[in-house]
Specification:
4-stranded antiparallel β-sheet; globular; 191 residues; 5-stranded antiparallel β-sheet; 5 helices; alpha+beta; single chain; 9 strands
């Protein structure tokens, strides 16, 4: 599977299924119309933070964009060797309403996440290294083996101030009533 092609086709399909223009999508996601057009044309790969904004604006799980239903194994989403890499461990589960990711932050990396949809709860567990998180405006430091659960519908941030790579798991739990409808996407090869 060509992940960037899949991502661009999925974005276009979701937008068109809703009958939205690029302008409307830009309004709903907070991502510029120009950037969204580049992503749809597979001319640009969004950062993980930008992809989160798009998923939130479309009210779909993040893994919708990076895990095809027919994928034999999950692929890491690492746009242009950026500082934050995300790999689905358990992609979107419609019965339990969660995504589970392995996230790697390069030394010095910082990523701010816009609020997810209302009612989203995020669970973060550090696997290796040190992770600094800003939750409710306060920074806290998590070491390997420790974790935190917080309301993902508020701005939060991840930072690796150390000189070593940090790896953590993030389980994103979506409220069942908000995702009761089945989320469908089409393969980039589908007509």
């Amino acid at each position: 599977m060509d992940l960037p092609q899949y991502l661009s086709a999925t974005l276009k399909t979701l937008r068109q299924t809703r009958g939205w223009s690029l302008s409307r999508l830009a309004t709903e996601t907070g991502v510029s119309k120009a950037m969204l057009g580049q992503i749809e044309r597979n001319e640009s790969s969004p950062t993980v933070a930008t992809l989160w904004k798009i998923a939130t604006g479309l009210n779909v799980p993040l893994s919708t964009f990076i895990t095809a239903a027919d994928a034999s194994a999950p692929q890491a989403y690492d746009p242009d060797q950026q500082a934050m890499t995300i790999t689905p461990i358990f992609p979107w589960d419609s019965e339990l309403c969660f995504d589970h990711f392995s996230v790697t932050l390069a030394p010095g990396a910082f990523s701010e996440s816009t609020p997810h949809e209302q009612g989203v709860i995020e669970h973060v567990v550090v696997i290796s290294g040190t992770l600094e998180m800003r939750i409710d405006g306060e920074w806290q430091t998590l070491q390997a083996g420790s974790g935190v659960r917080f309301a993902g519908d508020k701005t939060h941030a991840y930072r690796n101030s150390s000189g070593q790579t940090t790896q953590f798991h993030s389980l994103i739990h979506y409220p069942k009533e908000r995702v009761a409808r089945k989320i469908t996407t089409h393969s980039p090869d589908a007509p």
